[in-house]
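Onboarding guide, step 5: your first structure request.
Type a short instruction followed by the sequence, for example:

Predict the 3D structure of this protein.
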Amino acid sequence: MPSKSGPVFVDGKLQILEMNEETITENTVAINSQHDDKRLTFIMDRLVHHLHDFARETRLTTDEWDAGIQFLTEVGKMCSDIRQEFVLLSDTLGLSVLVDSLSHPKPKEATIGTLLGPFHTHDAVFHEDGTSICSEGKGEPMLIEGLLTDTKGNPIPNATIDLWECDENGFYDTQYSDRDGADMRGIIRTGEDGSFHIKCTKPVPYPIPHDGPVGRMLKKINRHPYRPAHIHFIIEKEGYDKLITALYLKGDYETSDAVFGVKSELLFSLDKLGKEKAVKYNMKEDDWYLNWHFRIITEEESRKLVLTKNTDALKALGKGNFTINENGLPIAAPLD
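The system replies with structure tokens like these:
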């Protein structure tokens, strides 16, 4: 009969005595722990345990395992400089929103975050206050009048607001083969009073790319690929916690977003611009108008909140052999 013994140390060296269903998890964790990075040790420990438990609980077959490997291979092949199918997979499984929520918890007074999505780029250009991030004919014109403050209402000047959206056809600029630069995206700075004004277009619902393996997965499990109309934002200022969020227009798919990004606090309705603002910004009275107050927290506030929430959650969870570091993250417990 094979031994059920797990790994042991002989003369200070790790020895694997048996490799079977009973010992494989313990053996794998031990082999993966022969380094000094305690955070990585804990992550690998839990990854192996959860993967192995998944296989045990589902009684995973070799055919199913092979299908999973083929699926992930196809996801990788679909990735390019302008398309990140793995991010899309993470989004559709709800993982992206979860990771953002864990990494950037917010007090109730602050603007809540949501997923980045697969269409952010790093080639957006800066725009002057009141100008447009969109080229002509891309949709129904809209003015965003925004304010950025801390949670006490103090204005935050000279912060960057990076925003992007799809066009009236439901496509981002990166989805066009003849793209020659950033469109429907741009960066603006807040003024001394924390305000900013930017022209864009009324957002529309659109399907996420579903011509690849993630799309086939959604079809297989009877899910639609649509997202509600929305605009993405990244707000940054030195000393403050980076906010990745989006605002969602009420009316379509907000209760069945394909990537789980909608949160009730981020829903908005639109008004008409009106004569005064139309004259000021050289727009039409019946163009669309969105007013939004963003509230962010400092890096120190975020660090303390992460530490508190993680400490409480990890103590309640009680999984794995770990201690908590100064950033509130679990790391492998020191050996006795």
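Each response can be followed by summary notes, for example: The mean pLDDT is 93.
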